[in-house]
């Protein structure tokens, strides 16, 4: 794949993924106003287990299928790619149905383990059971949708995935907010019922996303059928061998895909209990809601950039690795790591520096909310690097190290979470998450270096320069915020928070981009070809 084609595909998926994540953040604002912190905690009790079951049900299908299809298409064996697609649809239907049954029937067993052991006057076991069962219906549709997305991605076609994700998110959010508003404001129901219907929106949204993918399939089927001709190379691989290879690819994707949900599930199972043991059970659910639901939504916006890179990175790296183009492989890896840092680091540092007005702008002015967001935002850079590093390892057929890295990180989280929560409360859970991801990332970097023989010196120098520019940006933002404090304070209301964030973001962004432009760093990171195209378009419009 050429640099320009890779970047074009990356930018398409980046934009689409960012819009999906942005919508996923925006809807939380009215949702919060309706259900508050107890509703946010209840939503997480149901949605996190669903996400874990979803990852198991899909078995890492989107990226695994994209890798499988990319490999066999590169070999000219379009017939095997189509065989896998057809039989995979049957497999995903079965795994989705089984996962739905297990989660639906297992909800009463899981529910009692997530609530505080004392001091809880909010959610009940019956509430948690209901929410888990409502969201479980999405498992009947999403696995099938995931396989179709992977098939298109394997053909280097990112449009169907991007548009289907957007439609899925829009349909889900419209249904979620409409149902929540009707239950709470029209029918005067409780937030528990509203949250139940809010989680059921995952099923409705999935139907919308699947409809888009089916439309794309029927539009492109004729063209794809033409790729399979009597002269097309056809391997003699058996169906069992085909599944074995697919599962070899898919297995590690399962663990990588559930990394964040696993960390969240550990918090859900331990946070309330640990807080109860230090006599903080009465505020445990509120703090968990801010940390795991509302704060997490904000910091995952920058991480969406890295998620987009990993979606396009796997088939691209697989192709280069299969062709033995190690020079291109090193360039691809280096550029991706630099782009991830360039886009993600200033965003997470900016959120951390502006944590108090940012939280107040989206939800309400809250000292504890701002403090939690300030601590949690920097951890997002670790989320981003883990996604990219795991994708690189999978692309070079070193999947087992991605699994091992997650295992080491989860072990750190399990060992340290309760002691750190009891010492530092919510910040303790954040520190445990950060340490777990840091261990995973260091391990993956060592394995990438070993198995690609890549020299990271250029990457280190440019990342170091980016870090310096981000530090300068942060100082300027803090100074700007101090100047604005003579005229407005973040806890005066949403409008003041909005103005502070907007002004500081514009100033900070201008400083950061100016430094990157003057030192030519932006051209080195994104490539001269892309920057020349952007300049030509800007000059033409001007």
TrEMBL record:
Name the major location: membrane
This entry carries the following GO cellular component terms, namely: plasma membrane
Which InterPro entries does this chain map to? PG_synth_SpoVB (IPR024923), Poly_Biosynth_Transport (IPR050833), Polysacc_synth (IPR002797)
Task: Provide the GO biological process annotations.
Answer: cell division
CDD domains referenced in this protein's UniProt entry, alphabetically? MATE_SpoVB_like (cd13124)
Q: At the top level of its lineage, which domain of life is listed?
A: Bacteria
Report the transmembrane regions from the record: 12-35, 47-69, 89-111, 131-152, 173-191, 197-218, 246-266, 298-318, 339-360, 372-389, 401-422, 428-446, 466-489, 495-515
What's the protein here called?
Answer: Cell division protein
